[in-house]
């Protein structure tokens, strides 16, 4: 059967686009997702959990995917969601829009109307912010942890930030800029909000013109000359062919370029060297890879100064600030505060303070290792390759360190340890017998006398002596900070939107691939610049705009 639209990937973007395009009953829409479906009302407990327990479930991720953080580094496992709802089903639930300069840079790159004034009403139409009573409620619930539920050290950090020139901002999405704020989270009635449930609702799923095919992995785009006519896929182990008038790739910033490259769309010389027949020579496919580097301090908390055991929240507060370095945008530094490290009983005994660079200049790549679809791509973020990034990453970490050394903050925790580079939540939540041993060590560390606590923690987490404690703490060199960074789950830019004359641009403002008919890419890979925010909410915005533009482009040229 011929389908009007075939959408590859049921993640954050693909779910939104499928729901929007299928609003027209005259259009037939097929949505394929490599992983399991997540049916509203029947979500697994770890996906519903407002603590991101789903991050710890390997079933929801692509197996065998690794990434190199920096030139010369060793590849390490890199989690990318493989489940309906994509990142919204497994992420840390931060619901941040970004800042005006993000969208100005999208427009400057050739993305059409992405001005702040243009996107602001769209964000408001998406969000159902529980603390914003004067605006029409959208479909994506957002809530914050009230200050009275913050542990003492978070309130002390808010006051220390004020003394550091960073005032409290009641609503960071409505008042973007520098300051300390309660973190907006995609949580509704103590359950995670995912696009698999909040936009692919039972009513949407019941549409006669929408088919959802989970456990279906796209392997190649089928082309005839410069026209895409469908997709080859593997469904539950069997090879199938799907035909469509238009194919919309929403597989994410790692797997969208991978699919295009395997289909002969990308740098022709590299593809030919792998034995892939070039269909379209487009140098930007897989280039311009961006992400946010980050690192963590882990805090041991005294009894009586921890979050309530039943508060299963993750990020409680955030801090935006500006490096003010030449040619760097405002609000490029980000610190954030996590109130518990595990869903287990010892989780509230610890807290995390993370530091990140949210407007990196470094660019990496996604390349094929071979033509075999079973081979994971070669992902290299090339963190700190731009000379502007290392000093700004250090500046973000030094700001966190400065706040942690504030006397009022110091009075609220025992020690702060610099964690080695790795996904912090997995350092505290390991599987099997090793995980049980770690849990016992964590509980012992949190509730032992100071000397024993520091020794246990340092050995269990390979962190060394504390960076900060009431007696002082060890000096941390810039090199130690930079060696502790890891990539966030925010890859972007590998099929960037831009002008046809720009060799690094892959899609036009309608999200159509330059030089190809009937092929669109609409997910975080299309972002010309990674936003100064966790990418879930900006991806929802992009998907809403893409659905409009893709639908309109069927009937005529895009007019910006």
Describe what this molecule looks like in 3D.
The protein is α/β, with parallel strands linked by helices. It is 26% helix and 20% strand. It has 16 helices and 25 strands. Strands 7, 16, 17, 18, 19, 22, 23 and 24 form an 8-stranded antiparallel beta sheet that branches. Strands 1, 2, 10, 11, 12, 13 and 25 form a 7-stranded mixed beta sheet that branches. The longest helix has 18 residues, at 536-553. The two termini are 34 Å apart. The model is unreliable at 555-560 (pLDDT under 50).
Count of helical regions: 16
| Count of individual beta strands | 25
Fraction of residues in H or I helices: 25-40%
Query: In percent terms, what proportion of residues is strand?
Result: 15-25%
Oligomer: single chain
Structural class: alpha/beta
Q: What is the CA-atom radius of gyration, in angstroms?
A: 23 Å
Q: Could you tell me the mean pLDDT?
A: 94
- Choose one word for the global shape: globular
Q: Low-confidence parts, pLDDT < 50 over ≥5 residues? A: 555-560
Question: Short description, anyone?
Answer:
With 560 residues, the chain is an alpha/beta fold.
Sequence-ordered SSE layout with sheet pairings:
Layout: E1 2-8, H1 12-21, E2 29-32, H2 45-48, E3 66-67, E4 76-77, H3 100-111, H4 116-126, E5 127-129, E6 140-142, H5 152-163, E7 179-182, E8 187-188, E9 191-192, H6 195-198, H7 202-205, E10 210-213, E11 216-224, E12 227-235, E13 238-249, H8 252-262, E14 265-266, H9 268-273, E15 280-281, E16 293-300, E17 315-321, E18 333-338, E19 350-357, E20 365-367, E21 378-380, H10 389-404, H11 407-410, E22 415-418, H12 424-427, H13 432-446, H14 450-460, E23 468-469, H15 478-483, E24 486-487, E25 519-521, H16 536-553
Parallel strand pairs: 1-2, 1-13, 2-10, 5-6, 13-25, 14-15
Antiparallel strand pairs: 3-4, 7-17, 8-9, 11-12, 12-13, 16-19, 16-22, 16-24, 17-18, 18-19, 20-21, 22-23
